[in-house]
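Dock adenosine-5'-diphosphate; give full complex structure.
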Amino acid sequence: MKRYHDIVGDGGSNVLEQVVEQRARITEGLAGVRHLVAVGSGKGGVGKSTLTLHLAGALRGRGLRMAILDADFNGPSQARMAGVERAVFVPPRSTDGSGAAGRSDKVALPRTSNGIGVFSMGSLVPESDALEFESAAQGESHTWRATREFSLLTQILGSFEWGALDLLMFDLPPGAERTVQYADFLGARASFLLVTIPSEVARGVVARSVAALSKRPNRLLGYVENMSGYYCRDCNAIKPLFESDGPSSLGIPCLGTVPFDPELARHCDLGTPFTAQRGTPVSLALDGVAERLLDVLEKERP
Ligand code: ADP
């Protein structure tokens, strides 16, 4: 099969130059980002978006410069969860303090009240609409979907002002095979954090993601077990939620467990920060995972 670089004479569309130029724009745009962390699972509904946002919040609380790219274009949750649903996209302000538009042609990221930059398709497409990828031939959208999705991701990465960041977190869509496509797209620089819940069904799917990612050069930082018990606020105790509560054997390090807390779900629905809940089991669990994540990231690659 031919790769882009093997194409000779493309009828004048300069596809090779275009791809190289876009890649260069992305590399340049992400040059100030220390760590790219993709949060995936394979399974949907296990709390990828929730953990991405609230781990980013915990790290932001430690003074780190954080941004999130919600890569789930068809089921974007970050806009609502992070409270940037009605964000207005504006050019970045100049750095000389004059207030005049800067020289950059890139778009500024919407920010949460605690200063996390968030790109989510949910800020652009209202929940009453679905994102539709146009296809070259009607009824053939399935053929074009992955291509359009990654071309959109390329545009987003090249169009926004990511600036100087400690972590850029990618909230991935479900699907083990798509998780691997993101590894291929983002390249070896991106590390992966996986999310599961204590159900054998979810663990089985996450195990597939682990197996698929293990064949790639990307670092597998570990996994988080979300919904590990239910935090009962009335009795201030963690109660079992799934029969399979307890350690799982995914063959990668467990960076922590996070219980289900209805108050966290409520904050996610309202798009309000969880910071007022400091000291609760969920908040402490998130802090613990954030700390271990940082430790692993800062360690040299094995
Ligand atoms: P995913 O991104 O994997 O599809 P979400 O993060 O959207 O999953 O989570 C699904 C639902 O479960 C959301 O309503 C979210 O608020 C809720 N949720 C996830 N984790 C927790 C938790 N630990 N405590 C309370 N609610 C949670």
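Observed: The chain has a mean pLDDT of 87.
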